[in-house]
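Protein chain data
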Amino acid sequence: MSAWPAYPAINDPALPRWHFGPPAQWMNDPNGTLWHDGWYHVFYQHNPGGEEWGDLHWGHARSRDLVHWEHLPLALSPQHALGEKHCYSGCAALDADGVPQILYTSVMHDEAHPGAQVLASPTDAALIGWKQAVATPVIDLKTHGGPAFERGWRDPYVFRTEGRTFLVLGAWLGEESVIALYENPDDHLRQWVYRGIILRAPKSSVTFFECPNLFKLGKKWVLLTSPVREVEWYSGMLDLATYTFQVERHGRVDESDSYYATQTIVDPTGRMLLFGWVQRFPKGRGWNGRLSAPRRVWLDAAGDLCAAPAAEIAVLRSGEKRFSAQSLDCTPAALALPGDHSHEVELTLERDPATTLRCEIAGVTIALGPDGVRFGDRPPVAHAATSPIRVHWLFDRSMIEVFVNDRAIYTRVVEFPSIPVVQLTANGPARLLTGHAWALRAATPKMPT
C-alpha cells in the first residue's frame, strides 16, 4: 500500500535536506528501530492523510548507512473492521527463530476499551508486508497478571539480558505514573508475565512515562523516558532477582522538548544508536516532523549519559572551511559558513573560569559560563562547559542539533531562512582554538514505487 499520491512538500525550501521524514504529512515517534539482514529499519508514527496528529499508522523506511533512506509501504494500518482506531507506538524485536516481530499498542474506536499490546509478524523476508494480530493481543489488562492499570497504558519496548527477554511500558496506576516490567518465558514474544514496577512518580510531577527504553551500557543500565516534557535518562542497576531498578544518576537527554520519543538500535559493531522525533515545525506546509540525526550514546566514568552524532553523517560533507585560532577577549568573531543552509560545524574553544562565552547561530544562543552550558533561557547543564569546550552543530535548513562536550545537547526548529554565520562573543578571556565547517549535501530518500 502506498501512502503518498503526490509529494508537493519535497519542494518546500524549509524542508530539511538530510534528516529523514516521510515525503509528506505528519510523523511523530520513531518505532521499531532495528538492524536486520544488512539494513537499518525505522518505523514511525504517521498520519498519511494530514499534517497533524491523527489516524496513526506505522510508516517504514530502511537504509544501508543511516544516511540514505528508502521509503517503504506502510507497515501497519488501523484494522477498522476489528474496531481498531490507531496503531500507537511500540518496538521491533527478533523472536526465537531470528524473525523480526513488531509489538505495538492497539487503540480501539470504543473509548471504554483500555487498549492492548499487539503482535505483528512479517509476511516476507524483506519485511515489507506485516500481519497484525489485533484480535489476539499478547498483553491485555484482563489477563496481564498485574495491577489494574488505567486506560492509556502503552509503548512496549523489548530488551534481552542474561538469556532472558523482557518488556517495559508506561502506565497509570492510581495517582502515579509508572513503568511496568514484563518477562517473556519462551522468547517467542507471544506470552508475557508481569514482574513489577521499576519506576514510579506522582502524576503531579510526571504526567506519563511515554516511550520508555531500557538497555545496558557497560556494567550499568540506562532507562530513557519521554515524560511529556524533555526526554530524561536514568542510569543505575537493574536487579532481575527482585525486578527493581536502582537509580544512581539522572539527567536530560536533550535540553529541548522539540526532541522526543526515543528508540534505539544496537548495530553489528555494538554501538548503541539513539533516534528521536523532532517536533514543533510550522503548520500549513504539507509536512510536519522529522527524525533526529542518529546519535551514538555511552556512559562516562561518572555514569552520565553522553551522545554524539553517528560518524556516518560525515559522508555528506563537502567544501570544508577552516577557521584560524583567535582571541575572543571582548572581541566578537563572525564565522561565515559554507553551503546553502545545511552545515556541520565543529569548534574547540577555551575560556577563563569566570568568563561567559556565547555562541549564536540561527537564533539559537549557547552560553558557556561558570554555571555550565545554557541554551537560550533553559536551566544550565552543570560541568559541561569545562575547557577545552567542543561545540558541534548540525544545521539543516529549519532545524538544528547542538552537542557541547557530548553532554549538553539541544535540538530546535528554527526560522528559515537564517543567516549562515556563527557569532562568538565573550565578556572576558576566551579563545577559539580550532574550527571546521562543511556544507552538507542533500540525502533525499528514495521514493516508494
